[in-house]
Amino acid sequence: MNFDLFRLVIITATEEGNGFNWTFVGEHTVNLIILLAVLAYYLKDPIRNFMVERRGIIGNEIEEARKTIEEARKKYQEYSEKISKMEDEIKSLQETLRKEGEVEREEIVRQAQAVSQKIGEEARETIKLETAKARREIQAEAASLAVELAESIIKQNLKGSDEKRFMEDFIKKVEEEGKWHQ
Questions:
Q1: Segment 27-41, tens digit of pLDDT
Q2: How is the chain classified by DSSP, letter by letter?
Q3: Overall number of domains in the chain
């Protein structure tokens, strides 16, 4: 609109008259003022209502934005506290797991020592039993050899009836001693 008014002023100034046409400008200025007055009179209430509504809408939007910001701050605080609690809980869990691991390690070491001790005791017992078994076998072998040696000596030195009697006596004694050692 400003462009049209500016063009109108230029056209008026350059028309056939050698001077500026004040009448033309004045008429159009008065028409413009009347138009603006009529518009202001009829549009005053709708514009005012629009502005009041707009102010209310903007005020409501600002209030909603404040509420949203406040809620966001509260949620931020809540989440910050939860994160802090989670960090503490994680540290607590790590400490608990570390302690449980130490207890379990100590239990495993204790069990390993007990098993080692038991294996040592079993080995000592096995050695004892094997030693006793070897002694019995050696004694049995020695007794067998002694019987054979005695038998051969007796056969060489004794005759018939003496030989039989000595052999029976000796066998009885060996059998009695064998029963006693078992």
A1: 899 999 999 999 889
A2: -HHHHHHHHHHHHTSSSSS--HHHHHHHHHHHHHHHHHHHHHHHHHHHHHHHHHHHHHHHHHHHHHHHHHHHHHHHHHHHHHHHHHHHHHHHHHHHHHHHHHHHHHHHHHHHHHHHHHHHHHHHHHHHHHHHHHHHHHHHHHHHHHHHHHHHHHHHH--HHHHHHHHHHHHHHHHHHHHHH-
A3: 1
| Per-residue confidence (pLDDT) for residue 61, from 0 to 100 | 93
Burial category of 143 from C-beta neighbours within 10 Å (exposed 0-12, middle 13-18, buried 19 and up): middle
The CA–CA distances, whole Å, from 116 to 107, 127, 128, 166 equal 14, 16, 18, 56
Structural domain of 65: 2-181
